[in-house]
Amino acid sequence: MKTAKYRKRCVDQIEGVMAKNKALTSKVDRLRLEAEEAKEKATQEERMLDLTPRLADKDREKKSKSVYRR
């Protein structure tokens, strides 16, 4: 009888650990995905910051060319 109770308790503990492991694995996967998305967003923002001065220069160049053509 003691062995059966001990075995049941061990199985219950193992099932509890497995459930926690599954939950933690899901959380880690979600956090990795969020980190990848944040990294991609930061990369896109960096590209935008790099492009902004170039676009401003091109805009100024266009305006200066249009002034000289008049």
Question: Which SSEs are present, and which pair or pack?
Answer:
Elements: H1 2-69
Structure explained in plain terms:
It is a single chain. With 70 residues, the protein is mainly α. It has one domain. Helices cover 97% and strands 0% of the residues. The chain is built from 1 helix and no strands. It is rod-shaped, with a radius of gyration of 30 Å.
Major sheet description: none
Low-confidence stretches: none
- The helix-strand sequence is H
Helicity level: over 70%
- Rounded to the nearest angstrom, the distance between the terminal CA atoms is 102 Å
List descriptors.
70 residues, 97% helix, mainly alpha, 1 helix
Summarize this entry quickly:
With 70 residues, this protein is mainly alpha-helical. It has 1 helix and no strands.
